[in-house]
Structures are given as C-alpha cells and as structure tokens.
Amino acid sequence: MVRDDLVVLTPEGLYCPPGGFHIDPWRPVPRAVITHGHGDHARGGMGCYYVAEEGLPILQWRLGAQDYRVHALGERVRIGDAVVSFHPAGHVLGSTQVRIEAGGEVWVASGDYKRDPDPTCLPFEVVSCDVFITESTFGLPIYRWPPAAAVAAEIEAWRAECEANGEAAILYSYALGKAQRVLAELAAHTGRPAWLHGAIDAGVQVYREAGVHMLDTRRVADEARGADFAGQLVIAPPSAAGSPWIRRFRRAQQGFASGWMRIRGNRRRRNYDRGFVISDHADWPALLGTVEDTGARRVIATHGDTDALVRVLNERGIDTGTFATGYGEED
Question: Quick one: how far is CA 123 from the chain centroid?
Fold first, then answer.
C-alpha cells in the first residue's frame, strides 16, 4: 500500500485520507459515506451520514433520525480534499457505488452490486476508474444466476404444488431487497396476493411508498389464529425458521430464495424443501465483466470468496489485492 492511496483499511472501516471520511464503517466515525441500507453497511453511531437521495428512505427505516447529508445521484460533493459522487449499484433500492476523485486519480468503491435486471431498483452504472474496490460475495465460477423471471415462475409453480397437497408455501427471504424483488417478479406470473411476516411487511411498505410495483400482499398477523394458509405463498425472514411463529401453519413446505441455493448442499444443510437461486449480488461472470467495464488498472476485492477472483484478475495482468472488511454475506 502506498501513501497516496485514496482508500485505506483502518480498524473502523474503509477510510479516505484526503476526504477525511469512511465508507460503510463498522465502528463509529465522524463522517460516514454510506452505499446502502443493509445492516452490515449502514450502522448507527456515526457523526453524520453522506447518502444518496434514493437511499434515504431505507436508511431512515433502518437507522431512524440521523444527521443525513443527502445528495442526488451523480452530484459532485467536495468532502475535505476529495470530490465524491454516488452512482447506482443495482443491488437494492437506493444502493450506490461511491466515486472518489483526488490527486488526479479516480477510485470507485462498489458497495454491494449486481448486473442483472431488477424492477425494484436502478440498474448498475459503469463508472470508469483507476482503482475499483469490488465486493466478491459470490467470487467462485460455480455462481451463475438464471433469469429472475424464470425463478419467479418456479416459485409460483411450487406454490401451486403446495396447494394441491394442502400445504402452505413458506419462502424465506431477506427483508431488504430480496423479498421485494421476488414480489415484483411474481407480479408478472400471478394475481394472488402473498402473505407476509411482519418483518418483511415493514420493508415492503417502504418500497411501495417509493413507487415500486409489487404483487399485492397481506399480513399474516392480521389473520385469526387457526386460519388455514394452504395454497398460499408466505414470505418470512430466515430468522423465522424454527421459531414459534411457524406453528401457525399446520402443514407447510419451506423454501429459501438466495444465491447460496446454487449449491444444493446448502439447501440440505439448512433443511429446506426447496431452494430458489436468485441473488442481489453479482455472479462470477458479472464480477469479471464489471472489472473489465470499469477499465481499472488496479482492483481490490472485499468480503466473500476473494481468492479465485484475485488469482484470475492477476493472471489477466490486473494488479489485484484484498481488503479484509467487516461486511456480511447476506443474500
């Protein structure tokens, strides 16, 4: 690491020395530039939060009232001796990449991102840069995503199968991004409403208020105890599996919507009846393609399966290393 790097790793997180700010810090800092609202990237306790306008409703839902410095996408903001701008990342509603310009160089921190179409958020914007800090959650060649529309058709077919068996179809899905994307994709395949766990419903309402079109939904909590959910699609967070809440459903199959379901052993270990491969992160071809698209001469991979990505990029002549970050691998 050289002295003039625009981003360095500190105990608090990724730090920009010329700007005097951190990107998605995992410990309290005076100035935080936030890529998106997932809990491993947006934490409480910061002095102030620089955020993109599209991501503000998510952060307000997750963090409540804070000192937010809100900026339009593409708007150039001077922070210290750096010029910063936010650009769509295609991960979830309001997710962004952070472009940093200082000392004649441009660095981009991707945050979490994907390249696949998603009706619930703006598509990824390629930002040319000298150095690209990329996530690598699914940085192995086995991770390749099928079209989300085909996965939504599989989910609806599974629900119909459960209906024929007199069972509820309980689909576990993360509350920010994944559940909403599933509901948006399902709207093209069925008019039947889905039933939501309360933790899922809260995030769905934030998306609805932002104008995102999704399948109609109902809250499980609004139904009387003993109600029969046979043939209904029920969406719940993974934390609901094995909880007392599940006892509401007398007969049910349980599935999980995640990129981790690309490996069947993950489904078996978690004891799911079905696994549906749909991810809000870049798959292996997208990781490689994005690096190429940016034109970066240097790449820094963070969190996930970094080894294979580093090896392949170095073999292609791109100087590639890693940052050991405190981000999770939620998908």
Answer: 13
Nearest to 197 by CA among 158, 257, 229, 237: 237
| Host H or E run for residue 156 | helix 148-164
* Predicted TM-score (pTM) above 0.70: yes
Burial class (CB in 10 A: 0-12, 13-18, 19+), 95: buried
Question: What pLDDT is attached to residue 163?
Answer: 98
Token representation of residue 109: 């921190």
Name every residue whose Cβ is closer than 8 Å to that of residue 326 and which is 6 or more positions away in sequence: 13, 26, 40
| DSSP β-ladder status, 96-102 and 105-109 | antiparallel
Please tell me the predicted confidence (pLDDT) of residue 135: 97
pLDDT at 329: 65
CB 104 within 8 A of CB 83: no
DSSP codes of every residue in 77-137: EEETTEEEEEEE-SSSTT-EEEEEEETTEEEEE--S---S--TTSPPP-----SEEEEEET
Residue type, 267: R
Specify the pLDDT at position 1: 38
Distance CA 210, CA 195 (A): 21
Instruction: Please choose, from the candidates 237, 182, 174, the residue with its C-alpha nearest in 3D space to the C-alpha of residue 215.
Output: 182
Question: What is the structure's pLDDT at 330?
Answer: 67
Structure tokens at 294: 């940016």
As separate numbers, helices (DSSP H) first and strands (DSSP E) second, the chain gives 7, 19
CA distance 98 to 22: 11
Beta bridge partners of 85: 99
252: left (phi over 0), alpha (psi -120 to 50) or beta: beta
The Cα–Cα gap between 16 and 95 comes to 20
Query: What residues of the chain score a pLDDT lower than 50?
Result: 1-2
Q: Give the torsion sign (CA, 20, 21, 22, 26).
A: positive
Q: Which residue(s) pair with 30 in the sheet?
A: none
